[in-house]
Amino acid sequence: MSPRTTIGVFDSGxxxxxxxxALLPLVPNAHYIxxxxxxxxxxxxxxxxxxxRYAVESAKFLEDNGADRLVIACNTATALALPDITDHVGIxxxxxxxxxxxxxxxxxxxxxxxxxxxxxxxxSHAYRDVAAxxxxxxxxxxxxxxxxxxxxxxxxxPVLFDVLRIYLREALDEMRALxxxxxxxxxxxxxxxxxxxxxAELLRELGSDARVVDSADATARAVTAAMNLPAATTTADxxxxxxATDSVEKFARLGSLFLQREIAEVQLLDLGG
Length: 273
Ligand code: DGL
Description:
By secondary structure, the chain is an alpha/beta fold. It has eleven helices and ten strands. It has helices spanning 17-26, 48-64, 75-88, 97-107, 119-124, 126-133, 146-151, 158-177, 196-205, 216-226, 248-259, and strands at residues 6-11, 31-36, 69-72, 93-94, 112-117, 137-142, 184-187, 211-214, 239-244, 266-268. Helix 2 packs across helix 3 (75-88) and helix 4 (97-107) packs across helix 6. The termini are far apart. The structure holds D-glutamic acid.
């Protein structure tokens, strides 16, 4: 690998930083460009046409600014727009859905998994379809209020616990009615690893012993596999710069907490409406 490989990482907001956090130690000799399309978030409440337009614009920006590889660190954009993105850029693209389903397969001890995701990801049934190819039955639960709470930094707030408890109780009841007991809960939105602790805690409270898994590490491993790289364990040489389409100060402040590294500067980007 050339030391100046540039990897573009894209999400609607902070969520994709969970994927960047997993990538930095595994591909340490790269430069990263992260783009959070915060002005147009949430993607998960929008139509396929709109999500595809936003995602293609973001992907092209990253390619035009030097990325020679793209990671779509957003389940919604992967589920609704991966073919549109690959049609419009000339560089390799890795999404999060297939790696996420692989992670669920590795964690599951029966065939039932629960996938928590945005409304658009759930409506696409992308997880149900890929899970079925692994012999898993995925029950998909839309959790539209979670992304705004995470973007607000309310990852430990009582309101987050109240909302999450309602979603999880409903999902477990729906599965019980179908005769299903999940052995793994897949966080099918890259914002959700930031609330993995509360998800695990509330599952216990509701009597479930399901394991909580996310797509971040699995996606980072898929990138190393696509690049034919040996596993590395240092972040020593990795460099990154960040763009956001709105709220750059908030992005730098909360993003540093989520990335667990200082984000010194976030450049404001206008991708249009
Ligand atoms: N982080 C995105 C995902 O993985 C969704 C956020 C949004 O709705 O904009 O689906």
